[in-house]
Amino acid sequence: MLFTSTQRIEEGFRVLTLQYPLSEDAKEFIEEYRVIASHLYWCKRLGLEPAKKVVERLWQKVPSYWRWHLVDLKDPMYLFKGVEKSLVPYRTILRLPLVDALHERKGAYIKDGKLVLRLSKKLELEIHERALKWLEKRLAEKPDKKYVRVFERGNKLIVQIVLHKINRVEIPRNPLLVVIDVNSSYGIAVHFWDKKLIKTIKFRPPNRGNRWSHVRELMSNRDLLYDQGCLTQRQINVYSSLIRLTLKGSAKGWVQQAVEKIVKRVKRMAKRHGKEPMVLIDKPDYSSLHGTPLQRTLYSFIKYLENQLSWYGVYWEENRLYSTMCPLCGGKLVLDEKTRRARIMKCTNCGFKEDRDNIPLYWAIKHLPALKGEASIC
Ligand SMILES: [Zn+2]
After folding, report:
1. Are residues 227 and 85 in the same domain?
2. Ligand 1 centre from 328 Cα, in Å?
3. CA torsion 181→185→189→192, rounded to 10°?
4. How much distance in Å is there from the Cα of 330 to the middle of ligand 1?
5. Residue 85 located in a structural domain
6. Domain co-membership, 103 together with 212
7. From ligand 1's centre to the CA of 354, what distance in Å?
């Protein structure tokens, strides 16, 4: 491959996680595999020869599909790349997954809408309709690699279908600028810029405070009904799951939904304007949010967004886009006026005035000529 300085390789992953009840057979097989795999891991790590018995057992008990990523250094899915040098053992050491390509001649494949796993026995597993549709769409986007990870978690059989796409991405010469400001007072603001500001959309992360009050309500209802003898144990369990679901997952769900919407919008908007999108992501300074759930949500938002942009081969960059530094003179911006809709900032040096949410956009546009200059070199 020939490269110019404006090109880079971006890798994006899409993962479908499926969960099934764990049969005795599958459980036994996974446990057996884990013991063998950990032995090989530690031998590799400590520079020892694996025990002959263990290697024999690997050949005896583990079908070839699931074997190569443990022993073949050249296997693209080889699990122990560089473990001798890594300082801390993987946290997943006893949870080493079975890995194989997703292919009819391999350990796992999809046939007639069912997932077929060749473990110690052949397992045929249902994939629910929504997951199947999602998978069909992703496969139509032509991933470069498709593989499967199988492991056990919480006495469930977990199967992950991992799709991997490798794109050669170039800085757009005539870009539609998309600025994603993760620091905005609102949560996340997405600005679209084509010589002028075309559109701004905003996303607000779910409020954990609200959720807590919802949980408190569920708990008090449950206790009240229980005291009155109206609930069976099974119904109590339903309440517990509701509480768990209310507290869990929803931040993750929010991140996924927000990212899907943004990426769709970016592609559609660029198409409509006949341009290539160029996404600038504010690299935020989270000192004020350190250790809070919101920080985790925003970090995972950025990670998820960058992964999905890479999957579609959209050019993106992280840039520090300030909202309290003047984009004209570098002076300090202070709050000048606060309305219900906006916080207007004013430069203490030159008098520049703007809505706080729009200031990162000015910084992004400042970055633009430099990027264009770089692109024109080749
Ligand atoms: Zn200024």
Report:
1. no
2. 5
3. -80
4. 6
5. yes
6. no
7. 11
Q: Using the mean position of ligand 1's atoms as its centre, give its distance from the Cα of residue 321 in Å.
A: 15
319 C-alpha to ligand 1 centroid (Å)? 20
Report yes or no on 1 lying in a domain. Answer: no
Q: Are residues 127 and 218 in the same domain?
A: no
Closest C-alpha among 162, 101, 150 to residue 125: 150
Which of 185, 216, 247 corresponds to the end of one domain? 247
What is the rounded CA–CA span in Å between residue 375 and residue 154? 51
Q: For residues 84 and 46, what is the distance between their CA atoms, to the nearest angstrom?
A: 7
Tokens of 305: 């967004």
| Same domain, residue pair 212 and 307 | no
The answer as to whether 295 is a domain residue is yes
78 with 185, same domain?
Answer: no
Residue 2 covered by a domain: no
Element (DSSP H or E) covering residue 28: helix 24-46
Residue 195 CA to ligand 1 center (angstroms) comes to 22
Cα angle 100, 115, 31 (rounded to 5 degrees) comes to 55
So what's the pLDDT on residue 377? 30
Q: How far is the CA of 333 from the centre of ligand 1 (A)?
A: 8
Same domain (yes/no): 242, 158: no
Quick one: which of 318, 321, 319, 324 has its CA closest to 336?
324
CATH number of 343's domain: 3.30.420
| 325 CA from centroid of ligand 1 (Å) | 8
Do 188 and 144 share a structural domain? no
Centre of ligand 1 to C-alpha 356, Å, is 14
Q: Is 120 helix (H, G, I), strand (E, B) or coil?
A: coil
Q: Give buried/exposed letters for 132-153 (b at 16+ CB in 10 A, else e).
A: beebeebeeeebeebbbbbbbe
CA angle, corner 288, sides to 285 and 293, nearest 5? 95
Q: Which two tokens stand for residue 336?
A: 């000048």
Q: Mean pLDDT for each 10-residue chunk of the chain (378 residues)?
A: 70 95 94 92 89 94 91 86 72 76 93 93 92 95 95 93 95 90 77 89 76 74 81 78 68 87 96 94 71 76 94 92 87 89 90 88 75 39
Tell me phi and psi for residue 248, to 5 degrees.
-95, 170
- Same domain, yes or no: 258 and 355: yes
Which residue has tokens 């008090």?
220
Domain span including residue 341 = 171-205+249-377
Pairing of strands 122-126, 145-153: unpaired
